[in-house]
TrEMBL record:
Residues 20-244 form the Histidine kinase domain. This is histidine kinase. It comes from Methylobacterium jeotgali. It comes from the Bacteria.
């Protein structure tokens, strides 16, 4: 039954994603067929002056549609979740080199790992992807450089907060990534988890980073929260359920499966 639930939640996430994709794809197709119609009309009237412009527009839309399908294919190849007891502090430590190399020398990366952090029940390689994506977003928000703080803590979510935050009451640990970047205005926060929502220039953002992190956190029984002040910076916190039972083993994690998408 649990597996079934997990499967249906996954289908819901995929449904949302493909719904967003279908919408964007449809817009592009409408653009292409509109351009083709205009070309046909102009040709039948023997007026060829605007034809080149319409052809360029159609080609641009076709290229963007192809890019969309590539992203969907990359998404569908994602492995399914394999949650296990995970020491998140150790996971962060193990990622630091890669993170620092990815964000570059103009961004200082600090960690604040809580001693006595609870083990999380989570798929460690998906959490690594999420962490790397959050750091890439943080870097993108700090074109002049700045500071990233990666912080872990134990959290008790009571019934009232749980209702407000749309997550079950209980024990969680949070992994948060803070930056000293541009911040996000409310209208960007409102759409940040939508698949393909991006404010980055064409070709730079996929708009999939936060939507995938959100899907992953929800499927893991957790949540994602954004706190941001324009001009000061952003904190994105991923809440993961505490693993109840024997403690997490400190396993070395393979680096190979990392796939930055943001
Ligand atoms: P992408 O990074 O490809 O644009 P995401 O889903 O990861 O896709 O992010 C969506 C949007 O949310 C970004 O385009 C950006 O506007 C905003 N955003 C995400 N993280 C941050 C951050 N740390 N600081 C400022 N804005 C952010």
């Amino acid at each position: 039954a649990e597996e079934q639930l997990r499967q249906s939640q996954k289908m819901e996430a995929v449904g949302q994603l493909t719904g967003g994709l279908a919408h964007d794809f449809n817009n592009l197709l409408a653009g292409i067929s509109g351009s083709l119609e205009l070309i046909q009309t102009r040709l039948s009237q023997g007026r060829i002056n605007d034809i080149e412009r319409y052809m360029t527009a159609a080609q641009g839309a076709a290229r963007r549609a192809a890019a969309l399908t590539h992203r969907l294919l990359a998404f569908s190849r994602r492995q399914t979740l394999a949650p296990k007891p995970t020491n998140v502090n150790a996971l962060v430590e193990g990622m630091l080199d890669l993170i620092q190399r990815t964000v570059g020398p103009s961004v200082q990366v600090q960690t604040v790992g809580l001693a006595g952090l609870w083990p999380a029940l989570v798929d460690p390689s998906q959490l690594e992807n999420a962490l790397l994506n959050l750091c890439i977003n943080a870097r993108d928000a700090m074109p002049e450089g700045g500071r990233i703080v990666i912080e872990t803590s134990n959290r008790w979510i009571d019934a009232q907060v749980a209702r407000r935050q749309d997550m079950p009451e209980g024990e969680y640990l949070s992994l948060s990534v803070s930056d000293t970047g541009t911040g996000m205005p409310p209208e960007v926060i409102a759409k940040a988890f939508d698949p393909f929502f991006t404010t980055k220039p064409l070709g730079q953002g996929t708009g999939l980073g936060l939507s995938m992190i959100y899907g992953f956190a929800k499927q893991s029984g957790g949540q994602v929260r954004i706190h941001s002040t324009v001009g000061e910076g952003t904190t994105v916190s991923v809440y993961l359920p505490r693993h109840q039972g024997e403690a997490a083993r400190d396993e070395a994690l393979p680096r190979g499966g990392l796939l930055p998408v943001a």
